[in-house]
Specification:
Largest sheet: 7 strands, parallel
Helix content: 40-55%
Number of strands: 13
Low-confidence stretches: none
Order of helices and strands: EHEHEHEHEHEHEHEHEHEHEHEEHHH
Number of helices: 14
Radius of gyration: 21 Å
Shape: elongated
Structural class: alpha/beta
Distance between the termini: 9 Å
């Protein structure tokens, strides 16, 4: 039997989105497999508040910024609380962990997970972080791995593409009318939806603008919260669309919201890896409209598993949504193909298997 691992996750971000959910989801799965998993996160962070509900032990340290106090606290933690591998997730905590481990004589290896597709600096210090301080690099998509290998010159055998895994038994097609009744959504209206943190680069603004070109009975449901909430509310009012747009806020269970939709749209224009919400929507069997930003192309194959439009192209986005609403057979075909594709490559246990292998190889504990 393989020996259990002691894994420490670190996260300096105070926000909430797919990255933080992936950390907690992976941690919970590893705990269920018998490993010891802990999370060190920033004081005042949302992930610290959410961790108990996931069964993940979490500890708050002042690591939200690159400061000496954070470095000192991180060093003391790593000195006193030994582990087999440290898994870092954002820039700040990666730097604090890397320097702390260096000062301590590198008592354990570091695995750096890169969740977004923003370019990584080619500077000397950043190269040290990725090429020397990190034993392995994990990306959430092949496109992100390719960027690090070809643009930043990292060795391909040290970079692993491991997309976020989703529970394929929980996210599955359901009764649309029953879901709408339970959520208080109109039974007969065509519903287009998005599940995403309200960040600028997720493209909510373009979705709101595209709604104007769709028939007046079409409604838009936006699940999620974020820094763009006020701006989007103002845009909806400016365009006179208040009666057609529902801001649903954060939802602990997005399954019924997805099952209630006719079309799912994710018009991102930057920073994506392989978006969890898009995998979830595809597993629910929804016809999807999206872009090819980041590693989305690994999910969305135009005319096969989704309709793909150029980023920030409102007419194309509206046209693709209208096409799916007017052609149920096409939508059903794309939705079924999307579910098959995600079942094969994006299951939860598959992600855990691959991350466990990375942690074992990095730590030498087989």
């Amino acid at each position: 039997m393989s020996r259990p691992l002691s894994i420490l996750h670190t996260e300096s971000s105070t926000g909430w989105g797919g990255q933080e959910i992936r950390i907690l989801s992976e941690a919970r799965g590893m705990i269920a497999r018998g490993h010891t998993v802990r999370l060190v996160c920033a004081v005042g962070s949302r992930i610290f508040d959410e961790a108990p509900a996931w069964g993940v032990p979490a500890y708050a340290l002042p690591i939200a910024k690159k400061r000496l106090v954070g470095l000192k606290c991180m060093s003391e933690w790593l000195k006193l609380e030994r582990c087999h591998v440290v898994s870092t997730h954002s820039s700040t905590d990666s730097w604090l962990v890397a320097v702390a481990l260096l000062a301590l004589g590198r008592p354990c290896p570091m695995v750096r997970t890169r969740h977004i597709s923003a370019p990584v600096s080619k500077g000397f210090l950043t190269r040290w972080l990725y090429a020397s301080a990190s034993r392995r690099i994990v990306t959430t998509g092949e496109a992100l791995k390719k960027e690090l290998v070809e643009r930043n010159g990292l060795r391909a055998d040290r970079v692993d593409s491991i997309p976020t895994g989703i529970d394929t038994t929980r996210f599955r097609p359901g009764d649309r009318l029953a879901a709408r009744a339970a959520l208080g959504l109109p039974a007969g209206a065509p519903l287009v939806g998005i599940v995403a943190t309200l960040r600028s680069w997720k493209g909510h603004r373009f979705l709101v603008e595209a709604l104007r070109s769709l028939p007046p009975e079409v409604q838009l449901v936006m699940v999620g919260e974020g820094p763009q909430r006020e701006a989007l509310e103002k845009l909806v009012d400016k365009l006179g669309l208040r009666s057609r747009v529902r801001f649903a806020g954060n939802q602990s269970d997005v399954v019924p919201w997805l099952q209630a939709l006719d079309v799912f749209a994710l018009p991102s224009y930057a920073n994506e890896g392989v978006p969890q919400a898009l995998i979830q929507a595809m597993l629910v069997g929804l016809p999807c409209v999206t872009t090819h930003v980041g590693s989305i192309a690994e999910l969305a194959q135009h005319e096969k598993t989704a309709l793909v439009v150029p980023p920030q192209d409102v007419p194309a986005l509206g046209g693709a949504i209208a096409r799916l609403l007017s052609d149920p057979a096409l939508g059903a075909s794309l939705g079924a193909a999307a579910r098959r594709h995600c079942e094969e490559g994006y299951g939860y246990e598959r992600m855990l298997d691959r991350m466990e292998q990375v942690y074992r190889e990095a730590s030498g504990r087989y």
